[in-house]
């Protein structure tokens, strides 16, 4: 399956999974016309929610296996981006990438270019930060990094906020 088709498919699955708890209370609508009882409907929803959580867990694990910090050559990435940046006509650069891995941020940090992809420290949590990409190209003294498809470790929480877990979190 081609990349765009895969992303569309996985997006549809994730939207469906997110919607299950919302529609569960309405599972008995039209129950009088069906040869199914309320307990069976609720059992089905429970199984569907458990299966989608299992699949989401597997997606999470596979993304971290593929794109986590320990999956690339840090020195090679630093050399490659050092060459690219050395050939840029301007010191002011913004980087846009379709990659999910954080290698560009690591390379920019090692090159003392102060990468910023929108993560704000969440002082109320030790495990997640907020992500806010508005205005990152205007942030002074930093190199903006725009992840066009998101980055490994970025998720939307139940409140609809974009959060970031460390990219090395399995």
Structure description:
- The protein is α/β, with parallel strands linked by helices and 170 residues long.
- It folds into 2 domains: 3-67; 72-164, no CATH class.
- It is 42% helix and 12% strand.
- It has a 4-stranded antiparallel β-sheet, with no helix packed on it. Strands 1-5-2 form a 3-stranded parallel β-sheet.
- A hairpin with an 8-residue loop joins strand 3 and strand 4 (129-131).
- It is elongated.
- The model has no long low-confidence stretch (mean pLDDT 83).
Brief summary of the model shown:
It is built from 4 helices and 7 strands. The chain has 170 residues and is of the alpha/beta class.
Largest sheet: 4 strands, antiparallel
User: Helical region count?
Assistant: 4
Roughly what percent helix? Answer: 40-55%
Structural class: alpha/beta
Ends distance = 26 Å
Q: Over the alpha carbons, how many angstroms does the gyration radius reach? A: 21 Å
Poorly predicted regions are none
Strand order of the largest sheet: 3-4-7-6
**What is the overall silhouette?**
elongated
Mean pLDDT: 83
């Amino acid at each position: 399956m081609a990349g765009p088709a895969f992303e569309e498919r996985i997006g549809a699955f994730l939207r469906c999974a997110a919607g299950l708890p919302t529609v569960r209370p309405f599972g008995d609508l039209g129950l009088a016309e069906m040869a199914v009882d309320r307990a069976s409907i609720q059992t089905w929803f429970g199984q569907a929610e458990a299966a989608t959580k299992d699949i989401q867990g597997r997606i999470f694990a596979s993304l971290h296996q593929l794109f986590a910090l320990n999956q690339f050559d840090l020195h090679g990435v630093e050399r490659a981006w050092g060459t690219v940046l050395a050939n840029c006509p301007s010191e002011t650069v913004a980087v846009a990438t379709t990659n999910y891995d954080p290698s560009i941020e690591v390379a920019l940090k090692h090159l003392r270019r102060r990468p910023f992809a929108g993560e704000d420290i969440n002082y109320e949590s030790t495990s997640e930060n907020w992500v806010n990409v508005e205005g990152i190209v205007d942030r002074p003294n930093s190199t903006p990094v725009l992840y066009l498809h998101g980055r490994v470790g970025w998720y939307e929480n139940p409140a609809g906020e974009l959060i970031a877990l460390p990219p090395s979190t399995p």
